[in-house]
Every structure is written in structure tokens, then in C-alpha cells.
Amino acid sequence: MLRLLLPTFHKQEHMLNYIWAGLIILSFVFGIAYDVRDLARDTYRNDSEFELTLSWENALDPDMRRQEVTVRVDADYFQSFYQVEGMADSTYSGVLINSEEGIQLRFAEDVALPEPWATIRSETSSRDNDLRGKLTLVPGAAGAATIRFSPVRYVKMHAIAQAALSMAETAVQLALSLIGVLALWMGLLQIAEKAGIIHALVRFTQPVLRPLFPDIPRDHPAFGMIVLNMTANMLGLGNAATPLGIKAMEELQKLSSEKETATDSMVMLLAMNTASVQLVPPVLLVALMGLQINQLIFAILIVTFISLIVAIISAKLLGKMKRFRDTAPAMIEEA
After folding, report:
1. Distance between CA atoms of 136 and 208, rounded to whole angstroms?
2. Phi and psi based region of residue 111 (left: phi greater than 0; alpha: psi -120 to 50; beta: remaining)
3. Does pTM top 0.85 for this prediction?
4. How many domains does the chain have?
5. Residue 237 CA: distances (Å) to CA of 68, 182, 184, 241, 243
6. Do the domain assignments include residue 157?
7. Of 101, 135, 152, which marks where a domain is finished?
8. Residue ranges of the chain with per-residue pLDDT less than 50
9. What do you get for the CA distance between the two ends of the chain, in Å?
10. pLDDT digit string, tens, across residues 100-109
11. Do 330 and 183 share a domain, yes or no?
């Protein structure tokens, strides 16, 4: 039935590849343009010294390794220096650190900072999350000092690269976790099949599923796999439903001599899986939202019921159209 659609699917697959490639190229172009603009404007005032005022409780000891200080920043000067707006006079706690390279000022960790200081901190001290720079005390002026931060360049390109690496790591973690789920459920399926549970499940659910899958012989194991797949989906166990759906497709494939064309039952199963029949919210959504997921239960039930009805009707109607009916494996075998 899907033979006429296969060229279209291949074209859509290529089109999706082009879209993804275009989005990637567009993101790099955007990142480069944004970074070039920052360099032209000198947004982060690289290699420039910023004036601030320090105060401390005890006398400043030049030989002391660490000394806590209070940093005061004038809002007017900050706005003029970085060409920004909307900042008030601010006071921050910090630490002076003496080293062989000179005096370094470190702001308190995780403190709220205005832009562009917040970006400078994330780019130069992402691990400790404390803004830091080389400090120079102004001779003869009590508490007056200047600080020079490390240069910051190509912020957007760094963010794009970091996001790509983060998503790649997430993909590997998901793949590894899916391997465990696949192994567990495939093992349970083998046990259930040997124990006769699958056969009993087939006999119990056969009257309900037969109108949707009329070309599956009675007492065939595919019925049991389809029921288990749908049950896992209903319970929000998407990862568990995957191996069951694959196993159901394998059983359905055994009933067809046409290995490159989907049967009506395969299309119906795929449509029902795409509809995402769920009576319980997905596990991932529960993990993200917690108890707030209760507000979406009725919405999930309504949407999943409507999507299931639409999927079943669509699969049945398309299966009766002549252009698809003539290419169905059952019709090919009869011819």
C-alpha cells in the first residue's frame, strides 16, 4: 500500500536533511555576524581597565595571600563605559588574591551581575562562576583601583559549539539508556512467550483488535505484541513501547511476502503509535513538571483520544483508495 508513497517519503527525508543543514548553516552565519558586531563595537571592552572603589575592614596588607573586600561600582560610569542602560549603583563582595602575576580580584560566586559582566563571567570562569580580573591599585587614592578582565570574543560561536557538544552527550546517554530498556523488555518478551502469556493475551484481545487488523490470522503472536506496545504507550512508557513496536512489526513482516511494502496492519500500527495513545502522562514529562502535570491530565486524555480516532480513520480511508489498494501486498499476492 505504501509503494507509491515511498518516493515521496524519500523526497521528504532529503528535504528534512536540507532543512537541518540550512538551520545549521543559518545558526553559524548568525553566530559569526553577532560576534563580528561585538568585535566591531568592542562590547566587552577587551584590554580596557574599569575603574571601581574598594573598601575593607582591616588595613590592607600587601603580604596577605587572601583578603576580603567590598567592591563599589558607580552606575553612571558603568553605563558610559559599556554603553548600556538601566543599572543602579551596586555593591559586591569580593576577595583580593596576591600571586606572582599580581593582584587578582574575584567577585563572590553566583552573584547577580549586569551585562556584559554576566557574559564575561560565564566565558572566563564557567566552572567557579565568579567574575575575576587583574587589579591595579591607584597610588595616593584610598580604595581607588582599576580592573582588567580577560578578553572575551566569539561568544555566540562558543555557545553554538557548546550546545552541539551538550546535545551530542545527551544523545549518547539516551542511546545507552535505551539499550538497557530494549534488553530488559526483549528478555521479558522471551519469558512471556515461553510461558504462554503472549498466547493467552492474544486470545483475550483478539475480538477487540480484529476489526482494526483483519488481515492478521487468529491466535497470531503479532496481536500480543501490538497489545503490549499499546499498553506501554498508554502508561507513558515510551522507551518500553519502542522494542515492543519493533517486535510487532517483525511479526507482521512474517505475514507478508513483500518485504519492501508495508501492509495495512503495519500502517495501522504505525498510525496508532504516532497518535501516542496515553492514559498516563509520559514519564519524562512527570520528571520535568512534577505534581503540576496533574493540570494537564484531562487535556492529555482529550488530545490522545482525538488523535487516535483521526489516526484509525485516516489509515482505513487511505487503505480503501484505489491508488494505495492496488499496491497493497495482499493485492499483489492475489495477482
Report:
1. 81
2. beta
3. no
4. 2
5. 53, 12, 13, 6, 11
6. no
7. 152
8. 1-9, 287, 332, 335
9. 14
10. 778 899 999 9
11. yes
